[in-house]
Design brief:
Order of helices and strands of chain A: HHHHHHHHHHHHEHHHHHEEEEEEEEEHHH
Strand order of the largest sheet of chain B: 2-4-5-7-6
Strand content of chain A: 5-15%
Number of helices of chain B: 3
Largest sheet of chain B: 5 strands, mixed, barrel
Strand order of the largest sheet of chain A: 3-4-5-6-7
Order of helices and strands of chain B: HEHEEEEEEH
Oligomer: heterodimer
Largest interface: A-B, 52 and 41 residues
Structural class of chain B: alpha+beta
Number of strands of chain B: 7
Radius of gyration of chain A: 27 Å
Distance between the termini of chain A: 43 Å
Distance between the termini of chain B: 71 Å
Chain lengths: ~675, ~150
Amino acid sequence: MIIELGHYALVLALATCLVISVLPVIGARRGDAALMAVATTGTYALFGLVAFSFGVLTWGYVVSDFSVQNVYENSHSMKPMIYKISGVWGNHEGSMMLWVLILTLFSAMVAFFGTNLPDRLKANVLSVQAWITTAFTLFILLTSNPFVRLSPVPAEGQDLNPVLQDIGLAIHPPLLYLGYVGFSVCFSFAIAALIDGRIDAAWARWVRPWTLTAWTFLTAGISMGSYWAYYELGWGGWWFWDPVENASFMPWLAGTALLHSALVMEKRDALKIWTVLLAIIAFSLSLLGTFLVRSGVLTSVHAFATDPTRGIFILCILIIFIGGALTLFALRAPTLKAGGLFQPISREGALVLNNLILTVSAATVLIGTLYPLLLETLTDEKISVGPPFFNLTFGFLMAPLLLAVPFGPMLAWKRGDLLAALQRLYLAAGLALVAGLVLFYAENGGPVLAVVGLAMAFFLIFGALADLWFRAGFGKQTASIAWSRLKGLPRSAFGTSLAHMGLGITVLGIVAVTTFETETVVEMKPGMTAEAGGFVLTFDGMRAGQGPNYTEDRGHFTIRKAGVAVADVWSSKRLYTARRMPTTEAGIVTFGLSQLYVSLGDPMADGGLVVRIWWKPWILCIWLGTVVMMAGGVVSLSDRRLRVGVPKRRAKVVAPVPGQVAEAAE
Amino acid sequence: MTRKQKRLAVIAGGMGFILTAVLLVMFAFGQSIAYFYMPSDIATKGVGPDTRIRLGGLVAEGSVVRSEGSTVKFSVTDGNGTVPVMYTGILPDLFREGQGVVTEGMFTAGSQVFVADTVLAKHDENYMPKEVADRLKQDGVWQGGEKTQ
């Protein structure tokens, strides 16, 4: 019964969506405050209904109600509780439910925090959000209903894919979706502004917190996914340029560009049309990602069961939203007033360079991802575009950006002084070169190009610190004055600095691990030793083990440095009994920021075992950097100018909005 | 420089960057695209040595031989042709005789053995690489995978 209630709530949600899709837009056109107010109440109701429906599905998993087909196919009564819950989104239907849940959550947040928005804008934004929700709720109800019942009721479920039975699944999809779907708000703001035909600096200010939120979550989601793949798949890789990874990376690149171009719009009232286009592109790429992952056109770790009608349905959603948005953009963009001009060497100029490089890089990733699909559709020829393509194009295009990043914040708005920026940065550059050389020698060399990469990474880190240093006026003022000025700097300055520093740390990790990594594949028998990264590993033997829903063979290794045992590690091969599916659980030992990664292969006829050992120097920097980037996002979000109320006062000065009169009269 | 010249310089710079990107993409495509072949294609079309390709099919029953170290020899078949493959490294968890597989690598000059450096690992016991499944169904060799649950 309760399952049917969940289904019914979802149908009601669709009906609510339809109401919010239409009435507020009409209200906004006529200036009818009552109709516009439907948006806010309706959005809360919508979120409530979807949350209830999602809760019911979760309940089905928690009590292992195998009369529900979705639960039967993806759960097992012996599964630990955390995986029962995370299993809700470990399949196609459930993950679409999560998508819609997060979409409505964002709508509700816009309704809640948007009290300072002009009524018309708010009503339009919430309506556009409801259009997207309508499309996806319809998709779930028509093609991917998770509430289908089974009869007779099976006694036991088929269990979740073992690879997904990990804490990673509990965290990675929700974070990623918060990022993906968060860009829907930017999209809705862009569409609402285009409908209204009015865009100004205040618009950029309203959109900025949402872009920052989505960007921060997407950074977290991608980073988490990368670490999960690294430790779970047992191949020791942290990024595969898998089409699905690319699908999440492209919105991130576009979102990063949006974050920067919105700055120009907010501060200088320029790049308006471009910023609106970027907001549309960022969410379009999110939709494209959803299509690639959910339609089954790709074979990937992430592809669940495939069904052609689903692919076509999502493709239609894609065409309607992206096509519609771009058409509206093409119609309205010429009527928008272009903003001010500026010198090429200026803060704006640097931000334009950032946008150019990020969007072109995103475009190359897009081409590399879609070309095989396109070629197969057109000529039936099957090809694969592998990591070398992406490493070459993306790496080459991004390099100038990394070099330019420290200069950006040093340049003034309108007219910057490159020479002065150079003078401020040459110390940072010199130190970076020294640090790069020191690290290079400490890790016993490698290709000389690595020094360039390492120095570039250090330059990013030192450059970000130098920015704060000069802003506070250290060196010019006495230390105490500079210190108090540092404390008085706006939070967004710290946000910028942290985000750029985080980028540097990630680049450092990437360059170091690609250059200095060692991989050893050896056949080992108990008592034998292998050497990696200056450590000696002794294989002590195998032992059988038993988990809640799997059996395993665990190998034990003792790790010694200069004859002294410093650590030990278990590495195992598991067999999940319900699906008879084997997995590899790598043994990972952390030394500072570096890791030893031990993965077991097949047993040999003579009792030996193939063992693969990687030494991954500095690898934790990759993810540490993303954490610092996220911290930058959070700090920037807490900046004074983004807090509730501030944009409102500003907006009234800029342009009094008719809607607000109605609001005051209520 | 006048304002107009400055703007021209900026636009030229931007166009130059985009042009570089386009050339780079074309160059990289030429370098790193791998075409997909089935064993029977190898016999009919022929593949030159040192050309990077993907070879897919079923792992032939009884063909897997583990030699010393971590080198493995096996055959990939599609019913109409069979190609011997040599691979050094750890095979994916789901590598089994009679199962679908995609390998990436090249033929060396004067040898009929395909030297693979990658054997694709995927994550489902019902998994059949899409390219392989499409072709095998087309040729009527294999029918599974439609709806296994």
